[in-house]
Prior knowledge:
Elements: E1 5-9, E2 23-30, E3 33-40, E4 44-45, E5 48-49, E6 51-53, E7 64-66, E8 71-74, E9 78-81, H1 89-104, H2 128-148
Antiparallel strand pairs: 1-2, 1-9, 2-3, 3-7, 3-8, 4-5, 6-7
Amino acid sequence: MPLFVFRRYKKEEGGESTKAKHPKLIVDEQNQDYGFMGLTKSPKRGNHNNIKIDNPQKNNTEDSYIRKELRYDNKKYFGEILTDYVLSEKDIEKILEFLEDKKKKQPIGGSFKQCSHTTGLLPKKHTKTNQRSCQANKQQKTQHKSRNNKTPGKSKKGSR
Length: 160
């Protein structure tokens, strides 16, 4: 399976006025899923800078960027390889550098799904809010286990 190729993503994305099926850069393949990063014209997504690349589309000189987000989805949601989109060697190196940096930040033990709010392969940073919810979930699970492990034979006062 060739990596660093663009495929059309069959799911619609974007707001009401900009719904589109955008091309995605395939950077990984695992079983029935592709790991992909989005192609965009925007230099930022929220407060996060995207990776600036040469426009991969032939005969197009507009600025292009790759989102700093690795997502996974089933292969059935991707079309054929887009032959009019070609990534330069220089841009492949930029993306590999980004992926290596993300890999270094992988949690100990290799599991990214440690918390209910963590999705996909790459970990989300713990903010104060979701860190508290993480700790609250752990406490609820502990309390639930302790309630279910009461010793049999003991009953409440006044019950028959």
